[in-house]
Amino acid sequence: MGKNASGMYVIDEDYKIISYNLAAREIYPQLKRGEKCYHCLRNRETPCEICPVVNGIKGPKNYLEPGRNILRSVDAVEIPLESGGTGHALVFSDTKTNDEISSGMMENPLLMGIINVLGKNFINIYSVDRETHKVQVCRFQGQSGAYGEEGLRRDESYEKIMDIYIESSVAAEDRIRMHQMMDFEKICQRLTRIPQLMVHYRVRRSNGRIEYFYVKCARVGTAEDFQTVVFAFANEDMDVRYSEMEAILEPGGTASGRKLLIVVNDETDRKALTEHLEGSFEVITAMNEAEGMKRLSENYKTLSAILLDMSVPVCDEFQFLELIRDDVMLTSVPVIIITGSNRLEDEVRCLELGAVDFVRKPYNVRILKSKINNVIKLRESVMVLSALEYDDLTGLYIRQAFFHHAKTLMRFNTNQDFHVVVADIKNFKWINGTYGEKIGDQVLTYLGDTYRNQVRYGTVGRYGGDQFVAIIYGKKEIRRADMEKFIHRVESGAPIPNLVVNYGVYENVDKTLPFTLICDRAFLAMKSIRDDYEHQIAFYDDEMRQRHIRNGQMENAFVEAIRNEEFVVYLQPKYSVETEEIVGAEALVRWKRAEGTMVSPGEFIPLFEKDGLIVRLDEYVFRKVCSIQGERIRSGKKILPISVNLSRASIHYDNMICRYVKIVEENGIPFSSVPIELTETAALYNDRISKLIEKMVDAGFELHMDDFGSGYSSMTSLNQLPFDTLKLDKSLIDYIENFRGQQVIRHTISLAHSLGMKVLAEGVEKAKQVEILRSLSCDEIQGFYYARPLPWENFETKVIRAKEACKK
C-alpha cells in the first residue's frame, strides 16, 4: 500500500460505503454510510473515471484532488464482506501539492511560459505535442466537466483522452459538433492561419443542470514551426478571474492588474486621478480626444474601462463617444463619465451614446473606485474579445473586426490613399452542392490564404459567406491589367476547375464617408457585373456614383410622390383576336414628377422591387384601378376588366389579400373587374404560394400568368394553380414567323385551352403576327400594333372608337 497511506473506506459491489476510518473522515467530511461513494465525494451519478475498481487498475493510481491542489495516490484491494459478497477497500495517501507539481516544471520554461501567459483565467491547461499527440498537464484545478481527470493519463494520446472527455462530460446535443471541432489535425491546420481559436460547448451536470464552457486552443511558436498546441478550459458561467473578482466584491477590494484609460484635459486633474488609481490599476492617460482615440485603438483588447472628463474640449459635442459607438470593437470597453455638469440632457445624451456610469465632481475616491470595479465586473463577464476577431475557417478578420482595423488604418495614415476591393464567389451554392461542403470550405480557405498573401499594405477580412473584403493603401493605383493577371493566377491555382470570382473596386475612397458606405460602393460595383459572364472586375466610377445618387433621390422622393399622386396609371387595351373589339386593359404605372419630367418605369420599378417600396406602389396602383372601375360602373359603362400587376414582394406581404379585398369592397365593384397578374417567377409553385393564391381565388379574383415564356416556364404552376388567362411574352411572339417559334406557340395555346385558360399574346407589333395568332386560335392581343399604354381619358375615347369601328 505504501507507508504514507492515510485514509481508507470500504465499498460493496454497488459502490455503497460500508465503513471508513477517521483519516478518511477528516479528508472527506461528506462520507456517509449507505451512500454511493461517487455520489458522496463528487456528486456524480456514475462511477469516477479514475476509480481503480472501475478500471481494474493494479497498483496505486495518481490523481489530483479537485479543488484542493493535492496530488493523491489511490489503490483498491478486494476484500470479503460480512454479508458474504465481495467489496473493495480504497486506500489513498497524499503525494504532493499542485504547487510542488508546478515547481517541478520550472525546468521547462515552455510550460511555465504557457501558464504565465494564460494566467488565472482557465481552470485546466494542457499542452499537446504536434508530432506525438501526447498530452502534458500545465495546470489542473480539477473542476469536473472541464477536461479534468482524463488529462492526467499522460501515456495516452490526445484523441483518446478527448473522446473520453466529450462522451463523459459534454452535453449530448453538442457532442457531434465537439468531436468535429476538436479534431487535432484540423485545429493544427487552423492554427497555421490564426494564432488561436475558441470552441464553445455545454456540459450537463449530474443534477441535469447545463453549464457553458469554452476551450481556447493556441499555438506555441510561429505558424510555420510550432510544435506545441495549448488547450485551456474555462467555465463561462463562472467569472473566469474568480479569485481576483473576490477581491473586487470585498469592501475596499481592488482589481489589481486591470488597465484604465484616463482622458482628462486638465493636467492637475489628470495627475490627481492617476495618483488615486495607479495603486489599484494600471493607468494610461490622454489629454484630448485625438490622443485618447489613439490610446484606445492601441489598447482596446486589454483595457478594462475608460474615464472620460467631459471638459475635454472636443467632447463638448460628444465626439469621443460617437467615435467609439461607431466601432463595434471599441464599444466593448465601458466608459465612465466624470462631469461637473448638472444638466440632465447631457447625461441622457451620454447614455444614448453608450456611457455606462457617471461620477460627479468633486468626486469621492472610494465611490469612484467602487464604480470602476462594478463596471469592470460587468466587462469581464463578456467573452474574451480577441477570440471574436478571427474567422475560424479562413483565419481572416470577421466583418466587424475588419471594419475596426480598416478604420484604424485610415485614422492613423491620413496622408495615404486607400482602396477597397471586395470579392464574391460566383455560384458558390452550386459549388457546395456539386463538390460538397468540404471542398467548398477548401475554396474559401484557399482564397483567404491567397488574398492575405497578396495584400502587403493593408488588411483582409471575410465579409460573410462567400464574400471577402480588403483595404489597401499606398500611392499606387489599382490597374485593371494587374487585376486580370491576379485573377488568372487565383483561378489557375484553385482547388476546383473553372472557379469564378467577381471583384468590385472602390479606388481612392472618400475618407469622410462611414466605412460601411465605402464598402457598399465597392459592392455596388461588383453587383453591376453579377449577371455578366464576360467581365469579373468593375470599378466604382462617376457614372455609377451618379446612378447611385439618382437611385437615392428616387427612393427619397417616393413617399412625397405617393402623397402628391405623381404616379399615374396608364391603360394598355387588350383586343379580341376574333372581333378586334377592346375587351379589357392592363394597368401600367408611369411617374410624372412635379416639375413635369417623366421617369421611366425601367428605371424606378427595378429599384423599388429591390428596396421593397414596390409593395406600397402595387397597392397604390390597385386602389387607382378600383377607383376607375367604380367610376365607370356608376356612370353606366360596360365593365371591362383592368388587370393589375402584383410583384413577388407583395404576394408575401402580411395581410395583402385582406387589404385588397377591402379595397374592392369599398369601391363596390366585382372582383372579376380587377384580375391579378402574376409573373412566372412570382407564381413558382410552393405550398405558401398555393395557399395564398387559393385565398385570392376564393375571394373572387381572377388570375393571369404574365410573361409566360420569358425565361422560367413552370409546368407545375400551370398544373397546380388556378390561372384563368395565360399571357405569352413578347420574347415568344418575336419568333412567331419562324417555323419552330410558331410550333412552340401553337402547342402552348393548345395546352392552355385544354386546361381551361384563355391565351393573350403580348408585344404584338405587326399585322403578320396578328394573322398568325388568329390562325392559331389565340384569344386576345395586346401590343403596339393596336395601341400603346394610354392615360385613362384617352383609353375611354379609344374604347368608344373601337366599338364604333366594330359596328361598321
From TrEMBL:
Signal peptide: none
The keyword Membrane is assigned to this record: no
PROSITE patterns attached to this UniProt entry: EAL, GGDEF, RESPONSE_REGULATORY
Keywords attached to this entry: Phosphoprotein
Domain EAL: 551-803
Pfam families, alphabetized: EAL, GGDEF, Response_reg
Domain GGDEF: 416-542
Record carries keyword Phosphoprotein: yes
Positions bearing 4-aspartylphosphate: 309
Residue ranges of every copy of the Response regulatory domain listed in the record: 259-376
Gene Ontology BP terms: phosphorelay signal transduction system
Single GO molecular function: cyclic-guanylate-specific phosphodiesterase activity
Protein function: May play the central regulatory role in sporulation. It may be an element of the effector pathway responsible for the activation of sporulation genes in response to nutritional stress. Spo0A may act in concert with spo0H (a sigma factor) to control the expression of some genes that are critical to the sporulation process.
PANTHER family: CYCLIC DI-GMP PHOSPHODIESTERASE PDED-RELATED, CYCLIC DI-GMP PHOSPHODIESTERASE PDEF
Protein name: Stage 0 sporulation protein A homolog
